[in-house]
Design a protein that fits this description.
about 140 residues; alpha+beta; Alpha-Beta Plaits; four-stranded antiparallel β-sheet; about 40% helix; binds adenosine-3',5'-cyclic-monophosphate; metal-binding; metal ion binding; magnesium; transferase
Length: about 140
């Protein structure tokens, strides 16, 4: 069973889209195993986005992700990384397929509403950055 880290970014929180976004993953049939409404510290933001250090969008990205609360989550299911990335859509909203979260609700790459892990390695790293293992709730999903 695969797990992934998803985070509604400050723009999604400010626009009141937490429920809409969570609902899409629930309706897909994926399993929520952890969630946290929180502020991201500068240090956590730097660690989370370490792979982008040096890129032109890195400083504004850090400013943005620390600008207000986020809704951090862990979801689980078969192929959950590929499935959630398909539901989220491409990073640039102009390229996101109709019906995806970013196509439906986002305009700008810098304000693209949600982060989703792009590989099993990054999922494990990001889950461990934002959550302690004891915060992940183990339960049977019957349907
Ligand atoms: P995210 O999935 O959180 O990963 C890195 C973020 O940087 C990305 O979503 C965008 O919000 C932001 N970003 C801004 N410009 C770019 C870019 N040119 N390429 C990739 N990500 C970008």
């Amino acid at each position: 069973m695969e797990q992934t880290f998803l985070m509604v970014k400050p723009d999604g929180v400010q626009r009141g889209l937490i429920g809409e976004i969570v609902s899409r993953f629930e309706k897909k049939g994926l399993q929520l195993v952890a969630a946290k409404f929180m502020l991201v510290s500068r240090e956590l933001a730097e660690r989370h986005y370490a792979e982008h250090e040096g890129k032109p969008f890195y400083p504004p990205l850090l400013d943005f992700i620390t600008s207000g609360p986020v809704f951090a989550m862990v979801w689980q299911g078969d192929h959950v990384i590929a499935l959630t990335r398909a539901l989220i859509g491409k990073t640039d909203a102009r390229d996101a397929a109709p019906g995806t979260i970013r196509s439906d609700f986002a305009v700008h790459t810098n304000f693209n509403l949600i982060h989703g892990s792009d590989s099993p390695e990054n999922a494990e790293r990001e889950i461990n950055l934002f959550f302690e293992q004891k915060e992940l709730v183990a339960y049977e999903k019957s349907i």
